[in-house]
Amino acid sequence: MVAIRSTRLAHDGWLKLRVATLSGDDGVAFDREIEDHGPAVAVLPYDPERRTALLVRLPRAPVLFMGAPCDFPEVPAGLRDDGEDPADCARREAEEEVGVRLGDVEEAGHVWTMCGVSTERMHLFLAPYAAEDRTGAGGGLAEEHENITVLEVPLAELRDMADRNAIADMKTLALVQTLRLRRPDLFD
Question: What pairs with residue 29 in β-bridges?
Fold first, then answer.
């Protein structure tokens, strides 16, 4: 059985980078890096009447670093504050990022996003909304410099994007496919 012998902090910023020394049944020690920034949420707000969803587009430094286009839609998402309820965090992120006040949210999973590298465990939610639930333009908090563009996308277009492998973001793909399974009537 593999066990952690020790950890040390290598970087302490928006995220922490830790180096863990592990050992296996054979007693041999080896190191692994851990990206540590805590738990997160993602939510797909969808309007069942108009059959649309609210998504965001924002620059992503890792994607740009890899030389890839960074203009793909994503579901609203963010990090949870210490002790914050995941559903409340999803509601907060939706209001900040896309300007919608959500009531009920439906849990769609609780997943490790990159279990080989990161401590991030993400709660996934689906959330219906109506036109009157829009509270503003969204766009995120100015002090976070997210440069968010809000998109309203027809669910049929999201279905087509999923079918042609054109959704680049994993959390978005998971939530679109989950909504398709749970509410196929919305994609007719």
Answer: 23
What φ, ψ does residue 143 adopt, rounded to 5°?
Answer: -70, -10
Q: Are residues 64 and 7 in the same domain?
A: no
pLDDT at 32: 97
CATH label of the domain that carries residue 148 = 3.90.79.10
146: annotated binding-site residue?
yes
Q: What is the pLDDT of residue 156?
A: 98
> How many angstroms separate the CA atoms of 69 and 63, rounded?
7
The response to whether 97 counts as a known ligand-binding position is yes
Is 144 an annotated catalytic residue?
Answer: yes
**How far is Cα 1 from Cα 27, in angstroms, rounded to an integer?**
10
pLDDT at 178: 98
pLDDT at 123: 98
Same domain, 144 and 68: yes
96 and 123 in a single domain? The answer is yes
106 is annotated as contributing to ligand binding: no
pLDDT tens-place string over residues 31-82: 999 999 999 999 999 999 999 999 999 999 999 999 998 889 999 999 999 9
Q: Which structural domain, as residue segments, surrounds residue 145? A: 38-187
Is position 120 annotated in a ligand binding site? no
The catalytic residue among 49, 107, 144, 152 is 144
Q: Is the domain of 109 the same as that of 183?
A: yes
The whole model's pTM is what? 0.93
Beta strands 121-128 and 40-47 are: parallel
